[in-house]
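Sequence, please.
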């Protein structure tokens, strides 16, 4: 992918708010990437939002940015665009990215890359048929702490890795899943929309785990719903009294064996108050000669790559280079850079497909009370 000319990007979903506006747009237009990417067009759901976004980013990149809205075939077939980024709600992933693939454009697609395994398979097959390259929004693997862990393991700092476990928490204060939910985010609690605790925090965790330690060869899972009812809250966080039934579980216990023979356990619980002493994220990797620990008490720590955890080797703090600027923006910028350079650890649509098959196996194991082999 590396070339002297910057990659000309058309961005679908780069509006005034949300993940794309907060992280992806700013990281893509980071000064360090000016020689690698050039944002030339945006596409949103309305004329007004598209024009506002185009004006905002024209000031950032120093030249006019085209504004499209509606059907993404317009931006996908723009001859000045050779790469299409799509960051919208999961139910629209397939519909909006397929025109870009059909037009033969390389693409970025936000995780979970479709609402279901079937949709991800269709996207991956289309990309394969067209021979286009892909980048998926699984930025946790680019965390500076995770990169340091990779370095420590490769150097033999803890000997042969034999087991690993993750314990994490999604607190009620985040208010995007029950028991307390902003009404505009109800879609996250509907199973058909594919953006729940299994696909989002656990999906990111499992990508980071398998990227470091290898893929699962078998998995057993227990999935439970302890908060079956969600209560709407207003913008101040006060319950409105209105409730709705949740369609997504909130407790997951996953055990398995990796292809390397490593035993892995992942436990996510959610819905509790995030008071003092409540551990939000703990990941231990145990080798024959020592252990590595990543931990954080930040409310968003359950999703890797958003918040940098603290790193310990055999109980001692490890200094992570660049930690002062680490976090979601930094991780996303690293992913963009690696894709442009054509090498590195960035995630592709094939990685997304592999993870969706793992998540499907987890649900099958829980539903049928059996171990599933991958």
């Amino acid at each position: 992918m590396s070339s002297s000319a910057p990659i000309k990007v058309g961005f679908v979903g780069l509006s005034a708010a949300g993940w794309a506006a907060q992280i992806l747009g700013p990281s893509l237009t980071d000064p360090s990437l000016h020689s690698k990417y050039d944002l030339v067009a945006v596409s949103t759901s309305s004329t007004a939002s598209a024009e506002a976004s185009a004006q905002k980013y024209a000031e950032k990149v120093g030249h006019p940015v085209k504004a499209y809205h509606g059907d993404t075939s317009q931006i996908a077939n723009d001859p000045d665009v050779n790469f299409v980024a799509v960051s919208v709600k999961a139910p629209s992933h397939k519909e909006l990215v397929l025109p870009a693939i059909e037009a033969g454009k390389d693409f970025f697609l936000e995780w979970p890359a479709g609402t279901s395994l079937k949709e991800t398979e269709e996207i991956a097959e289309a990309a394969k048929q067209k021979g286009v390259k892909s980048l998926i929004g699984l930025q946790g693997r680019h965390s500076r702490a995770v990169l340091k862990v990779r370095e420590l393991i490769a150097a033999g700092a803890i000997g042969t890795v034999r087991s690993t476990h993750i314990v994490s928490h999604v607190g009620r204060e985040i208010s995007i899943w029950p028991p307390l939910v902003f009404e505009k985010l109800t879609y996250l609690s509907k199973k058909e929309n594919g953006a729940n605790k299994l696909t989002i925090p656990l999906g990111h965790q499992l990508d980071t785990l398998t990227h470091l330690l290898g893929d699962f060869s078998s998995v057993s899972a227990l999935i439970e719903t302890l908060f079956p009812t969600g209560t709407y809250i207003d913008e101040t966080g006060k319950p409105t009294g209105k409730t709705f039934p949740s369609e997504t579980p909130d407790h997951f216990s996953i055990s398995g064996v990796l292809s390397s023979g490593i035993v892995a356990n992942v436990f996510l619980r959610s819905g509790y108050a995030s008071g003092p002493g409540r551990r939000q994220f703990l990941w231990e990797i145990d080798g024959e000669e020592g252990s590595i620990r990543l931990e954080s008490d930040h409310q968003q720590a359950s999703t890797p790559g958003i918040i940098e955890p603290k790193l310990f080797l055999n109980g001692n703090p490890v200094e992570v280079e660049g930690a002062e600027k680490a976090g979601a923006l930094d991780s996303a910028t690293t992913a963009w850079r690696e894709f442009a350079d054509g090498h590195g650890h960035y995630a592709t649509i094939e990685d997304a497909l592999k993870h969706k098959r793992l998540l499907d196996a987890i649900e099958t194991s829980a539903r049928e009370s059996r171990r599933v082999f991958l």
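The longest strand covers residues 161-170.
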